[in-house]
Write a structure and sequence with these properties.
The protein is α/β, with parallel strands linked by helices. The chain is 32% helix and 19% strand. It has 3 domains: 9-165, P-loop containing nucleotide triphosphate hydrolases (Rossmann fold), CATH 3.40.50; 181-262, Rossmann fold (3-Layer(aba) Sandwich), CATH 3.40.50.11420; 269-383, Rossmann fold (3-Layer(aba) Sandwich). A 7-stranded mixed β-sheet has the order 2-3-1-4-5-7-6, sandwiched between helices. Strands 9-8-10-11 form a 4-stranded parallel β-sheet, sandwiched between helices. A 4-stranded parallel β-sheet has the order 13-12-14-15, sandwiched between helices. The protein is globular, with a radius of gyration of 24 Å.
Length: 391
């Protein structure tokens, strides 16, 4: 099960009036993007949900022209370039085989972000067709007006899209097998959504079932009774907020971890988390901590990232710390000011997006961790929580 953002992302780039929005309409088969002869119709990046056979549901992002001018134009171009951090594949739209300085600079950025990309020559119905390559990348001829070449382009997108962007590996496949019982401890508090479970809990249930194992879901108050009256489960996974209680009731011989730790191993920078989490012990008064939330939600008095974790970290360290909060995929300003960065589980974003989110901190050698691993550490069970993934 995926959230809206946890799907392959495709960015459409090119100069103004090269037909980027028309290309999105041609791919989707409907008028989902505004098309006009006026240059610069698309200002900010616009996301559209589409289905591509061979990949499945995707998010396609229409960007402003890379040749936009003026102060406002420069800001639009910068917004377009920020999209590079969250996409899995790029399509560069040109016309009349024109590959100039803006295109070459953009292609260089594609390579820096390790992005697969293809170049399409739009409006090919209006020019003499040629067989060309640019830096080893073959130019595909298409026409959004006649739809010539669109199917071939889609086939190339399917071929070039990294499988990791749309084929999510099992979260628990190396830990459990057929008929194994997995105990999922899911507290229900004021932060829990009304009438349903949160996404990581649902994802975990599905992953257990996909591995032909048995999912047993209960609240933290029922753990001791269950363990006393049933055979020992293969694995216990708890909401990180209940670590302190559940750890006391689950015998040492039964592997125990948290939902957020599982997600950290599946799509996070796990090795960096392992190294960075113990740095909590070395924080100083006045240090700034950046809390990264991958989704935007209404907070409550029991919010894990904005209330509980800051309170627990201050109590654990005994230091007066400052906490900043950034939601969604908003830009991070001046990463150097932070002594530590703590990322949520990232259930709503792709691995690529989470990796790029943490890249500035890791490159700046700032310790990084995630919610579940911090909670395990301050509760004194960090080694136990990560042990299942280190065997």
């Amino acid at each position: 099960m995926k959230g809206r953002n946890d799907k392959p992302h495709i960015g459409i780039f090119g100069r103004r009036n090269n037909g980027k929005s028309s290309l999105i309409n041609a791919i989707s088969g409907q008028e989902v993007a505004i098309v006009d002869d006026t240059a610069g119709t698309t200002t900010d990046p616009v996301r559209k949900s589409i289905e591509i056979f061979g990949i499945g549901p995707c998010i396609i992002i229409d960007t402003a022209g890379i040749d936009d001018v003026g102060n406002i134009g420069a800001k639009r171009v910068q917004k377009s370039l920020e999209v590079l951090k969250i996409i899995d594949l790029a399509v560069l739209v040109i016309t009349d085989y024109e590959v100039g300085i803006p295109e070459r600079e953009l292609m260089q950025q594609f390579r820096q972000f390790e992005l697969p990309y293809l170049i399409v020559n739009n409006k090919s119905d209006l020019c003499t067709l040629r067989d060309l390559e640019v830096d080893g990348c073959k130019i595909l001829n298409i026409s959004t007006k006649t739809h010539n070449g669109i199917d071939e382009m889609l086939q190339e997108i399917v071929r070039m899209m990294p499988e990791s962007a749309y084929r999510t590996r099992s979260m628990l496949g190396n830990l459990i097998g057929e008929s194994d019982e997995v105990l999922l401890v899911t507290p229900i508090d004021s932060e829990a959504p009304e009438g349903r479970l949160i996404l990581p809990q649902v994802q975990m249930i599905r992953d257990v079932l996909d591995n032909e194992a048995i999912a047993i879901v209960l609240k933290e108050d029922n753990v001791a009774d269950y363990l006393q009256n049933h055979r020992a489960p293969k694995l216990v996974i708890t909401d990180s907020q209940a670590f302190h209680k559940v750890e006391k009731e689950v015998p040492e011989n039964i592997p125990l971890t948290g939902f957020s730790v599982v997600l950290a191993h599946q799509k996070g920078e796990f090795d960096a988390y392992i190294e960075g989490t113990p740095k909590l012990r070395y924080l100083h008064d006045g240090d700034r901590i950046l809390m990264l939330e991958s989704c935007t939600h209404i907070t409550s008095c029991e919010d894990i990232g904005r209330v509980k974790l800051p309170r627990l970290i201050q109590k654990f360290t005994g230091k007066k710390l400052q906490f900043d909060f950034v939601s969604g995929l908003d830009q991070i300003l001046d990463i150097q000011q932070y002594a530590m960065v703590i990322q949520c589980g990232g259930c709503m974003v792709t691995r690529k997006q989470l990796k790029e989110r943490l890249r500035p901190a890791i490159e700046a050698q700032i310790p990084v961790s995630n919610y579940g691993m911090v909670l395990a550490y301050v509760n004194g069970i960090f080694d136990r929580a990560v042990a299942p993934f280190l065997r």
